[in-house]
Each structure stands twice: as C-alpha cells, then as structure tokens.
TrEMBL record:
Keywords: Membrane, Transmembrane, Transmembrane helix. It is a multi-pass membrane protein. InterPro entries: CysZ/EI24. This is CysZ-like protein. It is found in: Membrane. The chain crosses the membrane at residues 61-86, 129-156, 192-217.
Length: 233
C-alpha cells in the first residue's frame, strides 16, 4: 500500500514537468475531440433514424437525445478512450519519469516496434471492452442496490488498469538487458491497488483527465523501484 501511495505522490509532484504537461494537453485535447466526434455521430445517427421512423420530429428532441446518449456513452467508454489515448503517448510519459528519476533505465529502454505497439494496444483495448462489458452484465442485477454497480465497475477496472499500466512500462524493458525480469514485476496486490486508485480518479470530474497520466507515471516508479533502489537516481 505504501509503495503505491509513494509512487502516486511522486507522479503527482511531476505533473508540472513541461514534458508531462505537453502530454497532458495533447491527451486531453485528443480525448475531448474523440467525444466531440462521437457526439456529432450520435446526433447524425439519431437524426436519420428518427426521420425514417417518425417522418417528422423536432430537431430539439434529436439534439437532446444525442446529448443524453453522448453523456451515457462517455460514462461507459471514458475508461476505454482515456486508456487508449494515454497508450498512444505512453512512451513520452514514461520517458519523462525515467529521465528525471531513473536515468540508468532510460538508457536501456527499447523503442517498441510499430507492429508490437499496435498489437499491444489492440490487446489492451480488447481487454478493456471485454472487461467493461462483463462489468455491465454483472452490474445489471445489482442496479437496485445503488452501490452494487459502482463496486463491480471499480473492481473490474482496478484489475484491468493495474495490468495495462504495468505493461506500458515493463514491455519497454523486458528484453533490454536492464535487469528487469521476464515475468511481470509487480505483485497482483500492487497492480490491483494502483488500478483501483486510478479507477477511482477516473470517476471524479476534471481529475479523470489527469488520472491516466498519473497512472502511467506511478506505474513507472513502481516497476523500477520493485527491481531495487539502485535504479533510482
């Protein structure tokens, strides 16, 4: 528990780093742009569907329904989109943390081939979609318990995010000869606690835009510190 808290504290303290700030601005802009496109697509789809089904309807009704669908879709898909966007910029975040705190590891990190990056991203997005669909199925019977669905989504995403965040860092060093083991370096408990903390931040307005960045930076600290304090600068 203390290792996760320490890693997150270090990650938060580096948010002012210009390299981290640059990634934050790019990831926020891209995330918002994706949801803007989804909103427009929802409006166009509803406009077409309502015109075919009813023959005539109010544009205001279509706009309201599009907003409602976008909000609901955003709530369900934000984790998927945010994680995918951060994976796109993961190397920049991890590199900034390594250069500031783990220069030895920064020197031995490997650049993932494009094909491997695409493969890893596709696997990550697939796991995210599958996990959240499973969470939705499990949450439906618990809908009237109020807190039940929230707990289900939190547990599923804690497991999911912990693994994805670890792999963002670990895969850069797995074959680098930098001392990292060939098996995942973090314990299941560490992954779950890190993923749980980031999953909780993802439901807090405004903080949810920072959460993926904090998660990637925190995972960098955990992965390197797990392999010995001599890695730290």
């Amino acid at each position: 528990m203390s290792s996760v808290v320490s890693a997150m504290s270090k990650a938060i303290s580096q948010l002012g780093d210009r390299r981290i700030m640059a990634v934050l601005l790019k990831s926020v802009a891209l995330t918002l742009a994706i949801f803007a496109v989804l909103g427009v697509a929802a409006f166009v789809a509803l406009d077409t569907a309502l015109a075919e089904w009813t023959g005539s309807y109010s544009d205001e009704i279509g706009a309201i329904l599009a907003v409602i669908l976008t909000v609901l879709g955003g709530w369900l898909l934000f984790r998927v989109v945010a994680l995918a966007v951060v994976q796109f910029f993961a190397d920049e975040i991890i590199s900034a943390v390594e250069q500031a705190h783990y220069p030895r590891q920064a020197d031995t990190a490997r650049n993932l081939p494009f094909a491997e990056e695409v493969k890893n991203s596709a696997k990550g997005i697939g796991r995210t979609l599958a996990a959240n669909l499973l969470a939705l199925v499990l949450a439906i019977p618990l809908f009237f318990t109020a807190i039940g669905p929230a707990v289900v989504f939190w547990v599923v995403n804690a497991w999911l995010l912990g693994r994805e965040l670890q792999d963002m860092v670990w895969l850069r060093h797995r074959h680098s000869g930098g001392g990292h083991p060939s098996h995942p370096p973090l314990s299941k408990l560490e992954r779950f606690l890190l993923g749980g903390a980031i999953a909780a931040l993802l439901v807090v307005p405004f903080l949810n835009l920072l959460a993926p960045i904090i998660g990637a930076a925190s995972a960098t600290h955990l992965v390197h510190r797990r392999n010995g304090p001599e890695y730290a600068a």
